[in-house]
Structure formats: structure tokens, C-alpha cells
Amino acid sequence: MKINKLLFTTTLTALALTACSPKGTNSDSEIENKVEALLDKMTLEEKLGQMNQLSPWDPNELANKVRNGEIGSILNYMNPEEVNKIQKIAMEESRLGIPLLVSRDVIHGYKTIFPIPLGQAATFNPQIVENGARVAAIEASADGIRWTFAPMIDISRDPRWGRIAESCGEDPYLTSVMGVAMIKGFQGDSLNSPTSMAACAKHFVAYGASEGGKDYNSTFIPERVLRNVYLPPFKAAVDAGCATFMTSFNDNDGVPSTANKFVLKDILRDEWKYDGMVVTDWASAAEMINHGFCADGKEAAEKSVNAGVDMDMVSETFIKNLKQSLAENKVSIESIDDAVRNILRLKYRMGLFENPYIVTPQNVKYAEEHLKIAKEAVEQSVILLKNDTQTLPLTNKIRTVAVVGPMADAPYEQMGTWVFDGEKDHTQTPLKAIREMYGDQVNVIFEPALGYSRDKSLNGITKAVNAARHADVVLAFVGEEAILSGEAHSLANLNLQGAQSQLIQALSSTGKPLVTIVMAGRQLTIASEVEASDAVLYAFHPGTMGGPAIADILFGKVNPSAKTPVTFPRMTGQVPIYYAHNSTGRPANPKEMLIDEIPVEAGQTSVGCRSFYLDAGASPLYPFGYGLSYTTFEYSNLKLTSDKLAINGEISVTVDLKNTGKYDGTEVVQLYIQDKVGSVTRPVKELKAFQRVELKAGESKNVSFSLPVSELAFWGYNMTYNVEPGDFKLWVGTNSAEGLSADFTVSAL
Questions:
Q1: How far apart are CA 742 and CA 744, in angstroms?
Q2: DSSP assignment letter at 414
Q3: What is the largest CA-CA distance in the chain?
Q4: C-alpha to C-alpha distance for 350 and 191, rounded to whole angstroms
Q5: What separation, in Å, do the N-terminal and C-terminal C-alpha atoms of the chain show?
Q6: Tag placement on the chain: N or C end, fewer CB within 10 Å?
């Protein structure tokens, strides 16, 4: 579905009837002139007010602060009438009439909830991601929200970290592509459109590498790894025109991100020439006191502003302390003015001075077209991990299905994390969808077995087993509740919670075909459950339309096409595990003996001196980029137009892809490269391109990629960014572990 279809008839008509059309985008020079003219009129107190963001609770106190010019932005204020009321005070009763910037965490939908970002990344379809963000912006702007704290583009390689749910996974390239798509969707064609939201690239930077997977923890990322792995999505965000950036909670190598001059000034401002606005995360300036990096709020404000932060989220350390800091010459007026310039520039770019009030109609929420787009997102996000003996799709031979498990009819839980505004009454669950959409085709027996995902009671399992015995197939919906993932929801154990594993084993023992559907906010360690199941579908919390989409996949109306955006470990002890690891001097041998194969009194070196776990081996349960289809695909005839390329050249690759099965389907064709020898150790593989290719049953297509050699550049031994001449390997295939390969050489000019 193309992005322009999002301004569908009902929304567009209503918008046209009520909207005050923007007065056109101001040119950069016009905006800069306006910013300087307004800045010249501002008192120090008004400048510090613009740098202050609050989450208000008392309407009277808020009104007074806005009247006095003490607030530049508010968050978590969603009542349309109240938003217009407080905006009117800012425009008409404050001395300078500077509009407020109203913000909210709109992460994967506002009212219509889409799959969590990790699920959206599984689509390998940036258009789906862009569409979802556009829908979210249209709905959120109906309540006056014009700034969202998304996308989260932290590279996330540790599923113990709950915020992996908000991420686009483990890969810098995929995260960059999906992050840019979200930015485009949120911000639309122009920031000053009434339905656009300013995006916020977060968390800057390396937060996804929190030690031990514990939220808010320290990170220890050296500059080369920072530049090669963690910074690329943020550079892509800058290039895409992302309006704002947010600092992260972590300290990296002892320096909290909110006061890190190297990343905020040297890289973001000086190297990348970013002129957007930078905001702290929630109270992260004041939390530098807890870090032991600042003695008090005054020092926290000084270090933040001197590092290049523009706005303080809720801690009020800026507005309470910077006046004294300025008097003591610990902060310069130039630094304060630069921060205010960045804030005012954003407000002018958004057209808030000309059109500060809400104009998006309320009836856009849960619009029929939005629900269709959300359903399509789920259809492309559900991953088929296993399908022995073609258990799926369910055929017309199936007369009775047993629907069991705590996630089968859990409307709140399937929305996932960060859904402050989603309403469970609008959620369509798998149980409801199967009954409504396929109830005339099959008889449905429902036994939840467990009340919720953490339920340890075994009392309901007997009923579920009995239901299974009376059915032709069992559909077991398991996973984790929404509260088990997201911010501050880290886990040390990635197994299914409660008695869910016992439920799966009991259902498997009936001998009936067992389809396990997992709904979760992260990749879980489900090796035993996969072994016990005939088919497995994985749905990262799918949101409002999860039920109908999953039902259509189960019954074959939709052929799954998603791929894993993260590596699935066999057990938690393998974490962190990711495909693009560096080469080691003693790589694992797939034939190494595992723990149960080792003879008693074996020699010390008899198991092989290699890089693997005795109890888990070296391979994951599922590699990055993995996902099955109801049909099968065959790759052949991989060709490079040349295997000798110059540094300023371009790699042209073609491969033949054939649908060799009996169903129409879509394959995500993935291209990986390896720099065989570098000035520093390089990853064994790196994703560089992908395409979704639709094929009718029996159809073949020639798929082509064009990749500039410049895309092979990296930060090498001397901390310079360039392509190093030498030998490379290239793969094209269905996932990061399989594919056809070819070698090529890059030579210097």
C-alpha cells in the first residue's frame, strides 16, 4: 500500500473541511531571520523557559508557567480541548507568543496499534514501516501531539534487554533503513503539515548494549565499534532530516550520554552538521547525580548544556540553575542562545507560529483504512519458523480446532509495550478473529489453560488436553504479557514464563498436530517448544489487528513472508548472539562434540579447542534473516558483472529466483558481504541490501542489486573511514546462514 493512500478519502475530506492550510514552508534563510529576531527580544528567563519541558499535572500551575514563558514543551497532555486552551495561553497571554511543542511517546501507533517496532522490522519492508508511522501521526495530531519520541534506533543484540521490543533489531543496515522509514512516516512530506509529527532519533548512543541486558546500565563501546555498529542508524537519521535527537540513559566508558561532548558536539554537530534539537531522556540530566558524574543539579545542567543538549525533559535542572551558572561563567550565553535557536528553529519549521492549534479531525482514530494498513503490517511481520509435513496452512479437511493458551484472547497483552493510548476494546484477538472469520468453516473449542503468561497453575492444562483430543489441530497461543518487555523490563531468563512450556509438552503428547503461535516482545528461548510443535509462528506483539492477520495466515489466505530481525538463541547463556560477529582465530567447527557426547575422562583437548559452548554449540536456534513460507524458493545463477572493481565502482549482482512450490509467495532476498582481510578484524558477514520479491507458483524472476563499492567502507585501524582494497566475498540468499556466494576484488585507483 503506497504512502499516498494513507490520506484516504474519509480522512482527507474531513481534514479539508476543518484544516487551516499551512502557509507554505519557510525557506532556511527566512526561518533563521525569524529565529534571530525573536531571540533578540527574549530575556534570559524566557530563553531558559524554552529549554524546559514538563509533564504537567496541575492545569492552573501549567497555565501560569506558560503565561510567564517558563515552558517550551509539554508532554503527556492529550485532551484536544485542553491542548488548544493551553496553546492559546502561550500564543495570546505570554509576552512573546511562542507556541508550545506538545509531545508524547507514540512508538508503534497511537490508537490503531501496529506491531512493535521489532515486529515491523521483521517485515523487511520499509514501506510498511513508513505507513504505520504516518497513521500514527495522523491519529496523534488529532489530540495535538506534534512531537513523538521515536524511532528508537539502538542496535540491540541482547534480548534480555526489554527495550529490544522498541528496536529494529541487531543489524545496523536494517535499523538504518527502518529508522528512516519511520522518520518519513512521522514527519510526512513537510514538518509544517498539521498531521506531521517531529520524529526523535533515540537513544544517542549505544544504549542497546547495556551491560548484562539490564536497563539504564553502563556500556563500554570503543570508538571504532561505536562508529561501525552503533552510529550508522543515527547518521542515516540526520541525513533523512530527523527533527530531533534524544540522549540516552547509559554512561559509555564512564561518561553519561547527556554530557558526552564527543558524541553530541564533535560527531553530531561538528562532523554531521546537525541543526536539529537535542532533548534529554526523562530526567537523564538530573540522574547524572546518581551516576556520580555530577555533584548536584547545577553541575548537571552545566555539563549537559556545555555538551550540546538543548532541552531538559522534566528534571527542571536547566531552568533552576543556569542563571547562576551563567553569572559564574560556567555556561556561556552563546551556549544558551544556540540551544534556544535549535528549539525556535524547530517550531518555525513545524509551522507552529502560524498554525498552533489542532485541526486534525477526531474521526481519524481507528479509521477503517488505518485498520487495513495495520492488518497488512501484521501479515508481513509474522514469521513462520517451522512447518513440518506442511501442517500449515490449515486445509478444508480440518473440521475442529482447539484454541488454547493465555495469549489466544488477551486483547491488552497483544498490543505490547509502549501503548499508553491503545484501547484493548478495539483489539481483535486470534480467538475472536477465528470465530468470526472462519467459524462457518471450523468448529472452535476454546480452553485458555492458563489465566496469563506467568500463571504457574497446572489446573487448566487437563481441560486443554481434553480439547486437543477432540480436535483435528491444536492452535496454542503462548508468549509474554506486555508488561514483560519494554523499558525497565529486563529478564535474566528468556524461557516461556509460568506453566506455558508444560502446556506445550502436554498438548504435544496428544499426538494431534500442534501449531504454536508465540506473541512476545523479544526473541525467547523456545527450542524445546519448537521441537514439540509441528509448526511455529512467531508474532512480535502484533497490536490491534493481530487476530485477523494471524487467522488469515493460519488458514492460508495470507502466505507468511517475514524474516527474523534478530538472532534467536538456543538458551540464554548464548547471549549476546548476533550474526555479524567478528572473525576469531579459532572458529567453531559444526562437528565439535557437545556435552552429552563427551566420553568420561576425555582428554583436555579432545573436544576441540574452538569457539563454542559445550552445552549449546555455536549456532543459534534461528539465524538473522530467517523465515519460511508455505511455498519454496530456489536460488540459482548468481552473477557479478565483474569480479574486479575499483574503489569508485559499483557492484552489480543478479540472481535467478524461482517459486518451486504450489503457493504464491514473497521472498526477502538478502545480500551480504565480507571483507576478508582488513586493517582491523571485520565481521563474518554484513547485510548490505535486501528486496521483497513476489512470485506466483512456478514463476521465476531475475533479481538484481546495484551496490556502490563505497558502501563497503568502514572505520579502520587509523580511525579513518574508507574502503580498503582487497578480497571480498558476497552472498545472496534466504537468510544470513544460507546463500549462493561469489568472490570479488576491490583495487585502489
A1: 7
A2: G
A3: 85
A4: 5
A5: 43
A6: C
Angle between helices 333-349 and 317-327 (to 10 degrees): 140
Cα distance between residue 59 and residue 548, in whole Å: 41
pTM across the whole model: 0.96
Cβ–Cβ < 8 Å for 468, 512: yes
Neighbours of 706 (CB within 10 A): 11
Band (508; pLDDT cuts 50, 70, 90) = very high
Q: List pLDDT tens digits, range 123-152.
A: 999 999 999 999 999 999 999 999 999 999
Please classify residue 136 by burial: count the beta carbons closer than 10 Å to its beta carbon, then call 0-12 exposed, 13-18 middle and 19+ buried: buried
List, in order, residues 6 or more apart from 670 with CB less than 8 Å away. 563, 625, 687, 689, 690, 732, 733, 734, 735, 736, 739
Pick from 655, 207, 30, 139: nearest CA to 364: 139
The pLDDT score that the predictor gives to residue 18 is: 32
Summarize pLDDT for 659-697 with one digit per residue, the tens. Answer: 999 999 999 999 999 999 999 999 999 999 999 999 999
* Residues whose CB falls within 8 Å of the CB of residue 658, separated by 6 or more in sequence, listed in order: 633, 634, 636, 695, 698, 699, 700
Phi, psi angle pair for 153, to nearest 5°: -120, 30
Give the 3-state secondary structure percentages of the chain, helix then strand then coil, rounded to 5.
35, 20, 45
Catalytic residues: 281
Torsion of CA 481, 483, 485, 489, to 10 degrees: -140
β-pairing verdict for 473-479 and 514-520: parallel
CB 647 within 8 A of CB 746: yes
Please give the grid coordinates belonging to residue 395. Answer: 486445509
Integer Cα distance of 249 and 215 in angstroms:
9
